[in-house]
Specification:
Length: 347
């Protein structure tokens, strides 16, 4: 089915922001935009002639120029945190923007990939977004070429295929920062959702949410989602890890990681019966329970805030560039970055 293209606003330099809508024969619709290569909406039919949008976001492209919570956007070149806003690679220290206390978060709040206008190439059931990033931008080495392809199939699976190259060794750790609420983006708290995570370990953090380097077992802790349970069940437990992050905002280590596409998470909304299964080729996932969503107005005048959506940000581990014991996020030269994350919906 052809991709529908519509105007979505104007970038500060006058270029047009566009909205691309994919659909399948089962009534599912997905809209993405060239600003931040962002996922704007996921519409799921209810069998009664109406559809529910389960992704937090905005009605206008210009709103994604602010977007303090990174709704829907592709993050790069480095997602999550880098401790001390610096790293050393091949004998050279690279200093980054200290935009999260003393640390770096999501590369740069104003210059990161989530604020860039990507080149878009729509095809029959997909849109390929791509950009080029110059050597030294945001402090990262290498002339980089990055792409992400959104594809919607007849099994109600939305697949994101990321690819990246660089003429020099550099950090490439891309993710998508969508917030999901399977009851509907406008339905308030998502903490009644149940979550299953195929992860026996996670990476504990110190103040500033920088990993200690330990891969800690989840057994006997509030971090254990190996049996599906309600998110609200232990999110408020008085433990140091949950105090540091205000609730769940940690990296889980996906069991059996070998680079193949693995089912690692299932989210279910008991009130509506909707389910989202998530797959990835990456070694980790940041489960973020929306503890610090800034109070703001989103789509259709909806007020978003505390825990109104959850994120499952597939990734190399936070601060992995400073932890040689973690899976490496260094790519470039002959080493190509390539990953896949997929979201399959049942409704």
């Amino acid at each position: 089915m052809a991709v529908k293209i519509g105007s979505f606003g104007t970038y500060p330099d006058g270029r047009e922001i566009l909205l691309y809508t994919l659909s399948n024969s089962r009534g599912m619709e997905v809209s993405v935009t060239n600003i931040g290569a962002a996922l704007v909406s996921v519409l799921l039919p209810d069998g009664k002639g109406s559809k529910t949008d389960v992704v937090l976001g905005f009605d206008r492209g210009e709103a994604y120029l602010d977007n303090p919570s990174f709704f829907g956007a592709v993050i790069g070149p480095s997602a999550n945190r880098i401790g001390g806003a610096a790293f050393t690679l091949d004998g050279t220290m690279y200093c980054l923007d200290a935009n999260d206390g003393a640390n770096n978060l999501h590369s740069h709040r104003e210059k990161g990939y989530h604020k860039m206008l990507w080149k878009a190439e729509p095809e029959e059931n997909q849109v390929c977004f791509s950009l080029e990033d110059y050597d030294g931008n945001m402090g990262f080495p290498g002339q980089k070429k990055v792409s992400v392809i959104y594809t919607l199939d007849e099994e109600n699976t939305l697949t994101l295929h990321y690819h990246g190259t660089s003429d020099r060794r550099t950090v490439l750790n891309l993710t998508n920062h969508s917030y999901f609420n399977l009851d509907g983006h406008d339905s308030g708290s998502m903490t009644s959702h149940t979550l299953w995570l195929g992860a026996s370990r996670y990476t504990p953090v110190v103040e500033g949410s920088i990993p200690t380097g330990e891969l800690a077992g989840v057994e006997g802790t509030p971090m254990d989602f190996r049996t599906a349970r309600e998110i609200s069940r232990e999110i408020g437990v008085d433990t140091p890890q949950l105090q540091i992050t205000g609730g769940y905002d940690h990296n889980w280590v996906i069991d059996g990681w070998d680079g193949s596409l693995r089912h690692f998470a299932t989210v279910t909304a008991p009130a509506t019966g909707r389910t989202m299964k998530v797959y990835t080729t990456l070694p980790g996932v940041q489960f973020y329970a929306g503890n610090f969503i800034e109070d703001q107005i989103g789509k259709a005048g909806t007020r978003y805030g505390f825990r109104t959506g959850l994120c499952l940000e597939t990734q190399y581990f936070p601060d992995t560039v400073n932890h040689p014991e973690f899976p490496s996020c260094i790519f470039g030269g002959d080493t190509v970055y390539d990953s896949v994350t997929a979201y399959q919906f049942e409704f």
